[in-house]
Amino acid sequence: MKTHWTAAVLVPPPESWEPIQAIRKVHDRKIGRWMPHVTLLYPFRPRVEFDALAPALAAACAEVSPFTLTLRHFGHFQHGRGRFTVWLDPEPHEPILALHAALVQVVPDCDDTARPAGGFKPHLSVGQANGDGELARFLGEVESTWMPIAFKVHAVALIAREGEAPFVVERWIPFGMRQETVATIS
After folding, report:
1. Distance between CA 78 and CA 129 in Å, rounded?
2. Contact indicator for 50, 170 with CB cutoff of 8 Å
3. According to the model, what pLDDT value does residue 99 have?
4. Cα dihedral sign for 178, 180, 183, 185?
5. Could you give the angle at the alpha carbon of 105 between the alpha carbons of 99 and 106, nearest 5°?
6. In angstroms, what CA-CA distances link 168 with 47, 117, 162?
């Protein structure tokens, strides 16, 4: 069973958040709900299943080496009725796509992020826009001042929330480690 109260994500290190959050404070109505993140699996399994899932997720992540992502370019999704989500494009896509595929092998019912036309699209959401004019202003504003951010990713974060509280990291699943090691650092 899946829930919208949990997700598996990549979280940039907090020292890289400031320029991302500066954009989100102006443009993202969901800034109070989510930390900056790249969604891998959402909806995900309930928090009570995290312990049971940890060994299989750790096995999938054991084959992944830490990798560097760069947030250099912006993109957007159109949702119909002139509504858009604006996002930063985490490059390169290949390690994220491979990680996503490995995680979907563990929890195949949590493949919702792969279902849109074109499949899974790694992104870090920074806001919403209504109408073509607002989208053009938003992109013009952020693209003219954005300085690329690079950071190393070492783990998948399993996040959860209750009620209207923001998501918090409940467990880290590190890359390149066996389950015995994961159990000691969770």
Report:
1. 9
2. yes
3. 98
4. negative
5. 95
6. 11, 30, 10
What pLDDT is recorded for position 80? 87
**pLDDT (0 to 100) of residue 185:** 46
Q: What is the domain range of residue 153?
A: 6-185
Residue 168 clears pLDDT 80, i.e. is over it: yes
Chain position carrying tokens 């990680």: 99
1 within some domain: no
* Dist. CA 9–CA 34, nearest whole Å: 11
Burial profile 12-42: b = 16 or more Cβ within 10 angstroms, e = fewer: beeebbebbbebbeebbeebeebbbbbbbbb
> Number of folded domains in the chain?
1
Give me the pLDDT at residue 178, please.
57
31/129 Cα distance (integer angstroms): 14
